Amino acid sequence: MKIFLNKAIPQVGMKILNDSNNEIIIPAKENISDVEFLKYCKNADVILNVGGNKLDKEFFDNCPNLKAISLFSVGYNSVDIAEATKRKIPVGNTPDVLSRATSDIAFLLMQSVSRLASHNFQKVKDGNWGSFDPMENLGQELYGKTLGVFGLGRIGFEMAKKCKAAFDMEIIYHNRSRNEEVEKELGAKYVSFEELVKNSDVLSIHANFEAKDSNLFNAEIFAKMKPNLIFINTARGGFQNEKDLYKALKNGTIWGAGLDVTNPEPMEKSNSLLQLSNVCVLPHIGSATIEARNGMAKIAAENAVSFTKGEKMKTCVNPEVYI
Ligand code: DGY
């Protein structure tokens, strides 16, 4: 079969693909246009997709030959899963292997914002060290504070464990369903969305993004938060309304924000959030460790190859296609 990859992946995954009995197609240049992407996909049986290309109904209509999708990500919001399922196209993703790395970035952002670290680093780089001042550069401590986790799956659990171990934080969470393991292990408390918003000192988003969640964190929600709230998002930028977030940060409605994902991506250099001292933004690097990316490459390659051998993908977001 023909497997199309829009970008090369770490060697461990390339080896699995190259050792398989398939034709592996990779564009010669690193970044291809949407038109070129579609052209390659039209000729492929399987695509291994790196990044957030929209794989929607129109895309599927244009690629009638396509039989399987293997995503190089745990998130699958770029794919119309219902449409894929209707066409019996399995969609693989890469869970677990990036949970630690992504939660590390959430934890790092929380600390960076609570102690204004990236802002102060920028000051040093700008030759603006300043002088010791008892009232300047004051952060807030996290000991004993409340972490609110929105979407407590594998990544949220890792974040909660770190916050409990490092700062003895209370854990509250809101999720589609109760997570008894985390309640038992960390004494976490399940709360309504309203309670999560109202009672968190740090609110960290770890949910899978769906269209209905677009701009969920907006002016109305920020207004209900504590003034010392640190807003962390390492999931998908679509959750936040950035104009409202800017106003909430500028007016002191909330205390700070750490974002690894923005709305849209990439964030424009002119985005006013970047002017604020209480904001730290990273360019979607949650899973960017050697260990996590090797793990993702292995799973994504195995998912693609197992389809070509007539086997089920090990990690499939729409397993009902196999029934
Ligand atoms: C994921 O795996 O979903 C990461 O956010 C990269 O897209």
TrEMBL record:
<protein>
    <recommendedName>
        <fullName>Glyoxylate/hydroxypyruvate reductase B</fullName>
        <ecNumber>1.1.1.79</ecNumber>
        <ecNumber>1.1.1.81</ecNumber>
    </recommendedName>
</protein>
<dbReference type="GO" id="GO:0030267">
    <property type="term" value="F:glyoxylate reductase (NADPH) activity"/>
</dbReference>
<dbReference type="Pfam" id="PF00389">
    <property type="entry name" value="2-Hacid_dh"/>
</dbReference>
<dbReference type="InterPro" id="IPR050223">
    <property type="entry name" value="D-isomer_2-hydroxyacid_DH"/>
</dbReference>
<dbReference type="InterPro" id="IPR006140">
    <property type="entry name" value="D-isomer_DH_NAD-bd"/>
</dbReference>
<dbReference type="InterPro" id="IPR029752">
    <property type="entry name" value="D-isomer_DH_CS1"/>
</dbReference>
<feature type="domain" description="D-isomer specific 2-hydroxyacid dehydrogenase NAD-binding">
    <location>
        <begin position="109"/>
        <end position="286"/>
    </location>
</feature>
<dbReference type="Pfam" id="PF02826">
    <property type="entry name" value="2-Hacid_dh_C"/>
</dbReference>
<dbReference type="GO" id="GO:0051287">
    <property type="term" value="F:NAD binding"/>
</dbReference>
<dbReference type="GO" id="GO:0016618">
    <property type="term" value="F:hydroxypyruvate reductase [NAD(P)H] activity"/>
</dbReference>
<feature type="domain" description="D-isomer specific 2-hydroxyacid dehydrogenase catalytic">
    <location>
        <begin position="7"/>
        <end position="318"/>
    </location>
</feature>
<dbReference type="InterPro" id="IPR006139">
    <property type="entry name" value="D-isomer_2_OHA_DH_cat_dom"/>
</dbReference>
<dbReference type="GO" id="GO:0005829">
    <property type="term" value="C:cytosol"/>
</dbReference>
<keyword id="KW-0560">Oxidoreductase</keyword>
<dbReference type="InterPro" id="IPR036291">
    <property type="entry name" value="NAD(P)-bd_dom_sf"/>
</dbReference>
<comment type="similarity">
    <text>Belongs to the D-isomer specific 2-hydroxyacid dehydrogenase family. GhrB subfamily.</text>
</comment>
